[in-house]
């Protein structure tokens, strides 16, 4: 459905307000301890507050998140580790049982994290909607919480519906041959590379 991963750089901008994200996604040699690494820099604003940050997400070959690091320009940071099956701990090794069951992460302010469950599950039009517990990190508090979301494939490898489980938000996301979002209605639009 999706092509094998090669090094890719993309940029998105928010539909409203000022901002920009620059992301590099690449396969890694197994000696790095991860098979896939996403590194990004984001500047933006949310609820009238400006922010600047860098994040890194490491995944195994099956697109299961194994490490998350987020650092802001004002000195806040969050570093979490997982074995890939939904058990999280701090970088110092303290268990975070309230996040059990969250295999994927969702970071506020980026469309990239939608790629994680789409690629990991290889979602096709059947069996329909898939309900997932996501490790959600809001950029204002940096306090990771659990967020329940649903993903549904509308067109294999091209169009996916994202829904908050409580029905408060729904968006149909078009993606490219890497599973990266092209258009995220009302929130983000990709700037590069141009898609046809």
UniProtKB/TrEMBL annotation:
Domain of life assignment: Bacteria
Pfam entry (one): Glycolipid_bind
Gene source species: Sinorhizobium sojae CCBAU 05684
The protein's name: Uncharacterized protein
């Amino acid at each position: 459905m999706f092509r094998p991963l090669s090094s890719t750089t993309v940029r998105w901008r928010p539909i409203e307000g000022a901002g920009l994200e620059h992301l590099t996604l690449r396969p890694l040699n197994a000696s790095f301890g991860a098979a896939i690494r996403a590194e990004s820099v984001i500047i933006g604003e949310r609820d009238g507050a400006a922010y600047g940050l860098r994040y890194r997400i490491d995944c195994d070959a099956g697109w299961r998140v194994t490490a998350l690091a987020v650092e802001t320009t004002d000195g806040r940071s969050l570093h979490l580790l997982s074995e890939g099956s939904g058990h999280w701990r701090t970088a110092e090794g303290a268990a975070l049982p309230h996040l059990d069951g969250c295999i994927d992460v969702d970071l506020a302010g980026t469309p990239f994290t939608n790629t994680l469950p789409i690629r990991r599950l290889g979602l096709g039009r059947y069996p329909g909607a898939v309900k997932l517990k996501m490790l959600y990190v809001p950029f204002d508090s940096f306090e990771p919480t659990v967020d329940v979301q649903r993903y549904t494939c509308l067109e294999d490898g091209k169009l996916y519906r994202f829904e908050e489980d409580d029905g408060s938000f729904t968006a149909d996301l078009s993606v490219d041959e890497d599973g990266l979002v092209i258009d995220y209605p009302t929130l983000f639009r990709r700037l590069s590379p141009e898609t046809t």
